[in-house]
Amino acid sequence: MIATLRQFLRLEAASGIVLVAAAVLAIALANSALAPAYHGFLHFAVPTPGPGPDLPIEWWINDALMVVFFLLVGLEIKREMVEGELAGWSRAALPIIAAAAGMAVPAAIYASITWADPTVLRGWAIPAATDIAFAVGVLALVGSRVPPSLKVFLLALAILDDLGAILIIALFYAGALSLPALGGAAACLAVLVGLNYFGVTRLWPYLIVGGALWMSVVHSGIHATIAGVLLAMTIPLGVPDGVADTEAERRASPILRLEHALHPWVAFGILPLFALANAGVDLSGLTLAALFAPVPLAIAAGLFAGKQLGVFTAVWVSVRLGLVARPAGATWPQVWGVAVLCGIGFTMSLFIGVLAFPGDAAHLNDVRLGVLTGSLLSAMVGYLVLRLAPPHKL
User: Fold this and answer.
1) Rg over CA atoms, the chain
2) Least crowded by CB within 10 Å, which of 73, 325, 331, 381?
3) With left for phi above 0 and alpha for psi between -120 and 50, is residue 203 left, alpha or beta?
C-alpha cells in the first residue's frame, strides 16, 4: 500500500509540473501574435463518421479525451471505496466531512457574490473541486516535512471532491434529455453490469461496450464524461478463483491493470492537452477592476478563502467534538496548509466552467482568470504555510 502510494505521488507530482507548463504555454499563445492560430486550431472542425456534424478539436478534447480522465477518476474512487482510504466509516469519515464542507463553502461564497445575476450564478460549482495533480505537486515540494497521514488525507479528500463534482455535473449541467439515447445508455450499462456479475475479468469487452455507452450518452443530454465514471463502476476490482486463465491474471486486478495503463496517458497527455485548450486566458486590457469583476472575484474567493475555511473548520470542529481523530503526526498549522492547497482547483474547475458557460467567450475568459488567480494564491500560500510550519514528530 505504501509503495503504491509513493508511486502515485511521484506520478501526480511530475504531472503537476507538466500541467503548469501546458497552462503557461496556453496563456502565452493566447496573448501573442499566434493567438488567431491558437484559437483557429481549437475551433478547427474534424469530420466525424456518420450523419452528425463536424466537431471542433476543442470538443474532442473536452467531451472525448476527458472521458478517459473521468474513467481513471472513477477507477480510483471505486478502488479507494472498496479497499483503500475510503473503505469503512473510520477511514472515510474525516475526508468525507472535510470534502463536503470544502465544496459547500466555496459554492456559497460564489453564490453570495453573484446572486443578482442568474446567468453568472450558473457557475456556482466552479470553485468546489480540488485538482489532485497540482495539489500533490505542491505537497511534494515540501518533502518529508509533511507526515504521510496528511498526504493520504489530501488524496482521499481530492478524490471525494472529484466524486462530488461528477454528481454536480450529472445533476445540474445536463442538457435536454433524449429518451431513446438514454435507453441505449441504460442497455449498455446493463450489459456492463452483466459482465461484472458473470465474472468477466478481461478488459476488452468492458471497453468495447463502454465505447457504445459513451456514444449513447453523447446524444442523451447528459454530459459525455459521465460515461467514463459509469464504465469504471462496473469493472471488477479482483479476479475470482477459477476465472483467470493464469496465475499471473489471478494476481492482477482488472481495475489496477487499467489504472496503470491509463495513468501515464492521462497525466502526461490528456490533462496537458486539456490545459492547453482551456487555460488560454486573454490578458489584454487586464486591470484591477477586471480581477474584481463578479465572476473572477467569486471564483478566486471561493477557491482561496472558501476551500481553506470549509476544510479546516470541518476538520477542527470534528476533532474537537470527538467524531474523528486528527491525521497522525500532523500539527494544526500543517492541517491548515493542506486545507489551503485544496483551493487549487485547476482541471475540474475549468471543466465545470466550460459546462456552465458554453460558447460564452467573455465569461469563459473570466472563469480562466478566476481559476488561475485562486489556484495560484492557494498554491503559494499553502506551500509557505507547510514550509514554515514545524515538522511533524516522528
Assistant:
1) 21
2) 325
3) alpha
Alpha carbon 178 to chain centroid, angstroms: 27
Handedness of CA 228, 23, 15, 157 (dihedral sign): negative
In this structure, what C-alpha cell is assigned to residue 264?
A: 501515464
> What CATH code is carried by the domain that includes residue 60?
1.20.1530.10
> Could you read off the pLDDT of 199-216 as tens digits, one per residue?
898 999 999 999 999 999
Separation of alpha carbons 235 and 195, rounded Å: 9
Which one-letter amino acid corresponds to residue 201?
T
Q: Which residue has the cell 476544510?
A: 311
Is 203 a member of any domain? no
Cα separation, 346 vs 192, whole angstroms: 32
Q: Domain range spanning residue 51?
A: 13-173+223-388
How many domains does the chain divide into?
1
Q: pLDDT at residue 239 above 70?
A: no
* Helix-helix angle 203-218:254-265, to 10 degrees: 60
Give the up-direction half-sphere exposure of residue 241: CA atoms within 13 A in the CB hemisphere. Answer: 0
pTM > 0.85: yes or no: no
Cα separation, 353 vs 337, in Å, equals 26
Residues recorded for the chain: 394
Pinpoint the alpha helices (H) of the chain: 2-30, 35-42, 57-59, 66-83, 89-114, 118-121, 132-142, 148-172, 179-197, 203-218, 226-234, 247-251, 254-265, 271-278, 288-291, 294-301, 307-320, 332-341, 346-356, 361-388
**First and final CA of the chain: distance in angstroms?**
20
Which single residue is written with the C-alpha cell 491548515? 336
> CA–CA separation, 222 vs 216, rounded Å?
10
Domain presence at residue 201: no
Crossing angle between the packed helical segments 307-320 and 89-114, to the nearest 10 degrees: 140
Q: Side chain identity at 361, as an amino acid letter?
A: A
Element (H, E) at 56: strand 55-56
